[in-house]
Every structure is written in C-alpha cells, then in structure tokens.
Amino acid sequence: MLSICSAREADTFPKGATVHPRTRTTTGRRGPDTTLELAELLSHTARRLRRGSSVQLAPLGLTYAQARVLRLVAAEGRPLRMADLAAQLDVVPRSVTTTVDALEATGLVARHADPGDRRSVLVALSDHGRHLLDRLEAARRDSAEEVFGGLDPAQRHQLLELLGVLCARGACVSCRGPGRHVPAGGDR
I need a surface site. Which of 42, 76, 85, 94 has the fewest CB within 10 A? Predict the structure, then answer.
C-alpha cells in the first residue's frame, strides 16, 4: 500500500510499516491493526455526523449542544433538573447552565424552581421549543442520511446492532440513557 505521510512522519513508524491513507494507521510485519483502524474510522464518522449536524442546525439557530438538551428534555416528557441534564450529557453542570441560558434567551426552554427541592432548577420545553422539535429531528435525519445514505437497509441494521453492542458494554450515561437501542443479546 502506498504511504501518504511525509518523510519525517515515515521515520516515526516501524521499519517496513505502511501507512493506510484512510486511517493513518500502520501495517507492520504482523499485518494491519484492525482495532486502530476501527477507532480511526469511527472517530472520522462521528466527526462527519457532528459537522453535518452543525450545518443542518445552523438555520434553526441551534448549536449541537443546544439540540442535545432540547432532545433530552423532550424525550423525558417532563421537566428535568439541571443536574440530571449534566449527568445525562456527561458534562459539568456549568456547561449545562451556559447552554440552558442560551436556550432560555431564545424562548425554547423555561426554568422553574423544583417544588420537591428548592435548591434545584427544572428545565422545561416552551411551546416554541416543542414546535421546533419536528424541524430539529428533520435536521438530524438529513445529516445522518448524508453519512449513512450509502448503506443499504441490511448494512444499516448490522451497524446499528454492532454499535448497540458497544454501547451496552460501555459505562457512560449516554449509552445507557432512556430510549437507547438495546441490541439482541445485549446486556444492560
């Protein structure tokens, strides 16, 4: 396989190694490192999805983080505590505060005191936020179609199952949150 790295980069790889152009991983004497190739391709695909989402969300006046908060609150079907949002997003509470500030400023969410815990604040979708959900889902679908459109239905299903297995084995809240796909034979 031809290398696309510079002479300086080539000096950093083991003697006899070949760099794969798509993944920038090497093949040495023992053959390709499939695990590294998978990691690189999955990272690349995730970046494509995120960039595509950002492009699709821009006309809606939303960032990727704001869209995630709106989707989480909508999926829950009830107001969520800011701390619960931070945990589900796997971010520090201050990040959620900044995101909710922006959403509230545009009238997409409203904050309310939690009647069960006066120290907590609940975030609820506003009517405007609920009306935006259909457009938000269409934007997500369009960006996903750009990435996955080249796969036939069987390939999409297979990829869904495999990624579901990886999520089922993960320990992050995002993978185990409400509404997540549970693959056949996956443990939760």
Answer: 94
